[in-house]
Amino acid sequence: MVRKNAWAGYKETDLVRLEAIAKAYCEYLNNGKTERECVRTCVSAAQAHGFADLKTLIRQETKLVAGDRVYLNWMDKCFLLFVVGRRPLDEGMNIVGAHIDSPRLDVKQNPLYEESELAFLDTHYYGGIKKYQWLAMPLAIHGVVVRKDGAKLEVNIGEAASDPVFCISDLLPHLGKDQMSKTAAEVVDGDALNVILASRPLEGEEKEPVKAAVLKLLQEKYGMEEEDFLSAELEIVPAGEAREMGLDRSMILAYGHDDRVCAYPSMAAVLDFEGTPEYTLCCVLTDKEEIGSVGATGMGANYFENAVAELYALTKPYSELGLRRTLANSRMLSSDVSAAYDPNFAGVFEKNNAAYLGHGVCFNKYTGSRGKSGSNDANPEFMAALRRMMDAAGVCYQTAELGKVDAGGGGTIAYLCAKYGMHVIDSGVPVLSMHAPWEVISKADLYEAYLCYCTFLREAGEV
C-alpha cells in the first residue's frame, strides 16, 4: 500500500489555509514553551471564541444546553474545552486529546551554587532526552516562582532579542579523548547538566561573590530570595523561535513539537467548530505524559473524569451510571506524534510500516514496545470507521508503527482513556529528531492533522 504525498494534491486555496495554520501554530509555540504558558494561551483563545469558564458556571449552578461552549483550566497545567451536543451526554463524546509537556531540564529546588567563580543552576532532566544534545547551545529560563507570601512571579529570560541567554558547557575536542570513547548515554552525566548563570562578582563580597551578585539581581528584578527556589517551577528550554525550514519553507523547526503540534490543531478544531454538534465535543490537553502521565495533572489523575462529571451535572440530574456510560460510549483520538522515517537512520525503521514526512496525519493502531507492552491496541471496527470518515472528507492519512519491533518503543495517553471502555486510537503528526531540543515537522502534516480532527469531531458517531 502506498500513501500519496499530501503536497501533490493541494490547490491554491489549500495552500493559503495551510500557511495560515502554520503561522498560527508557530505563534502558539513561541508563546507556549511550558505547560503554564500553553494553558494561558489556550484560555485567551477560548475566551476570544466565546467559551465560558466551567468553574464559574459550576458555582452559579448554570444549566447547560446544546450549543453551549465551556472551558476548564486545571491547575494552570491542563486545559479542557467542551461544546455541548444535541444528544444526551451519556451517548458519548467525540474527544481529541494531546499533551502539552515536552522534554526539558527542570531547575532543582536548591539549585544555585558557585564553583571556580562561575554561578550555576543545578538541573534535573525531564522526560526522555539525549543529554549530550543540550550542551553548548543557547538556553532560556521559563516558569514561575511562588514566594512564601503567595505572590507569583512570572519568569521568562532568554527569548527577547535584548535578553541574555544561558548554556551548559561542553568539553573541547582537544581534551575529549576519554569522553569520545564513551557511549552516547555516558558522554555527559545527568548531574553535569549545570546551567552557567553568571561570572561577574559582586563588588566588596568575598564569599561566593558571583552567587551573591546573582542573588542581588534576583532581588532587584523579582523581589526573590534564595529560599524562594523551594517553591519555584523553572524550566530550561532552548532559546529561540520556531522557524520555517528548507529552501521551499515546507517544514517547521522548533522546540516542543512533541506534542504541541497535536495539541494546537486539537484545540483549534474545537474552537473553529461552527453550530451545534450532534455529540458533545471535547478537547483535553494534559500534562506529565513525558514522565508517565502521573501526578495531579497527568492523564492518570481523575481531573478529566471529574470535569465530565461536572459537565454532566449541569446538563441533567447527576448519575454515576450516566457518567460511566458517557465515558464508555465516547470516541477519542489520542493526538500524539509519531516517528517520521529518517533515511539517515534507516536501520531502526520498517519502511512498509513507517510514517513519512508530508504524507499526512498518522494513525498508530498500537504503540508500546516489543510485544506491544504498554500499548493501547485500537479495535479494527474503529479504524474502519475512521478510514470511511477520512476518505470521504479527502484527508490525507497514513498508518505507522514506532520503528522496528525490537528497536524500542513508546507510549501515549491512549491506554489511560481506553480504561473507560471508549474507542481510542493514536493519531498525530510525524516528527524528525523527536525529543531533541529542535524537532522537525512538515506543514502539510500539521494541516492534515487539523483537517482530521475537524472531520472526527464533526462526523464520529457510534462505532
CATH class of the largest domain: Alpha Beta
For the CA atoms, what is the radius of gyration? Answer: 23 Å
Q: CATH-wise, what's the superfamily of the largest domain?
A: Zn peptidases
Q: Count the helices. How many? A: 11
The total of beta strands comes to 22
Judged by helices, strands and strand pairing, the structural class is: alpha/beta
Fraction of residues in H or I helices: 25-40%
- Mass-distribution shape: globular
What's the domain count? 2
Low-confidence stretches: none
CATH domain topology of the largest domain: Aminopeptidase
Distance between the termini: 25 Å
Strand content: 15-25%
Biggest pleated sheet: 9 strands, mixed
Strand order, largest beta sheet: 1-2-3-13-4-14-20-16-18
Instruction: Give the integer mean of the pLDDT values.
Output: 95
CATH architecture classification name of the largest domain: 3-Layer(aba) Sandwich
